[in-house]
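Consider the following assembly input.
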Amino acid sequence: MLNPEYIGFFAATLTTSAFLPQAYKIWKSKTTDGLSLTMYTIMGLGTMSWLFYGVLIESPSVIVANCISFSIILFIVTFILRSKK
Amino acid sequence: MLNPEYIGFFAATLTTSAFLPQAYKIWKSKTTDGLSLTMYTIMGLGTMSWLFYGVLIESPSVIVANCISFSIILFIVTFILRSKK
């Protein structure tokens, strides 16, 4: 039987790294035009909730995925807020 | 004991609705400037993998969340591709 955690960590790698090109684009262009602050704020709160869910169901892949995603989202939100000043 | 699925569905509502402002912004402005096609493509693949994970661990919240997210991401990717023509 396939261990679901393999699939979980594969999914985690994808959804986590999905935020990296956007973070890199922001870092390089120094602009956040076209990016929705609302989206990233809600996503940050959602990621925190999934992290809590991962702890409750004791799923290593859900916990690791959301820890990393949350860090990257925090970086993006900070950058959007700074550029709004 | 707190049912983890309550947290799961709360998290699902947040991470799913997080994509809506971005989708609305695209729909209204008809532009996808600043959005990373790479990000949304990887996110789409990741969401599909989480869906598979949800089926394997039989988690209703993970399944529902990723079904809806995948649909919205598909809309965004389609729009970015169309605007690139």
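Chain B has a mean pLDDT of 90. Ask yourself how this observation constrains the way the partners meet.
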